[in-house]
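Entry 14. Structure prediction run on the chain below.
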Amino acid sequence: MNTNFGQAWKMVVASSDIKKQLKTLSELLQGDLDFHQMQSSYASHNFHSFPAKFPPQLPHVFIQNLTDVGEIVLDPMNGSGTTVLEARLAKRIGIGLDIDPLALKISQVKTCSLKPLAVYETGLRLLKAARMMLDTSPEIIENYLQSRWDDETRQFVDYWFLKSVQRELASLRIQIEKIDDLALRRFFDVVFSGIIITKSGGVSMALDLAHTRPHRVKQVLDKNSQILFSEIEESQPPRSHWVKKYRSPFEEFEKKLKVNIRGLQEITSLPVYHILSDAQKIPLKDNIVDLIVTSPPYASNAIDYMRAHKFSLVWLGYSISSLSSKRSEYIGAESQPRTSAEVLPAYTQSVIVDISSLDKRKGMALERYYSEMKRVLTEIYRVLKPGKCAIVVVATSILRGRNTQTHLCLADIGKQLGFIVPEIGVRNLDRDKRMMPATLQNNSESQIQQRMHEEYVIGFYKPA
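Output returned:
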């Protein structure tokens, strides 16, 4: 009798706790998730441009309300490390997974602990040595450039970078690669990458790198508006998006160094772990994570991270062929799936069938995306502790005029796996910050603008 009463009482208490946790999660998801007019460049959040970042306030609000100091916060699709940096600032243990080598490097640097003065002095010495090498030992730089890449990568570099820019970048790379301290070398790698992949400008002949749609300019002008490079015929009136001002890598490196130094903090709180890993195979034990906050890629490669990241990764030692191979592994890629399709819920399958009826290739890409996301959510369920939450921030895509209904499909898949989904929050986007569009004018026919106005914050709760 007493044993039965004790078991019944435990069930009542457990049920009460679940209701309380679900109520808290629902209230957070119903709150203001826009965070417009809020400063997002504090700490090291602005170390490097990255497309479609969510504001740091978003993971912050869930970390503060759903975890305690010392607990584990995971982002299995880490990107530039917004979640794990917020976890560290809040004295939680952060774990970030990603298969993009540049994303992981950026996140490592944003969460490291370095002494700002020592880093700045090293940076100035590095710059001085690079400038001196360019003046006194140009043959070393030329040898470096000639031996650096295979033919395909060499052609890519020659197409996108002026020779004078290549020489300055090479002299910087030679100095950076001499640094023995791994954390310090990573820091300067990110500074270096940050002068190539920028929201505006950058030292390559590309525009629109920050939102992954690069196109090469037809003309480059120096500071005095003298032509350094031109493919514009005399009969063609130059257009603004054809022309770019020359930027010296040395000068841009010094500017970016100063910006990043201001964001450095000597963080002494709990550690952050970074793992080069696929979110479909999370290398963690069962039931150990206290909170997950993540944002998966768009379906059908709508934002092609590698298209931009390769501009700096080729300088960091990667070949074009290796990066193309890596790109095909990304969730949301349009290439053929590496594994068979998963059994998906009826609603999700109906969305796939609808798009497949209009475009079989797009339908196959969407089926791959939802199959891969089912494997990700399965892993999230496995590593999450019972009674804990996962927050997944998504936006829909428009394929052949049809909405992929990503938020509803992922919620559907989550329920199939055993999650409770009490609420789906809505974020109204500040599109200039989130998507970094190429134009400020509204265009109802533009697919990228059709999905720029809002995104969805799905709350998954793993029952206790």
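Residues 393 and 457 are 4 Å apart (CA to CA).
Filed with the rest of this week's runs.
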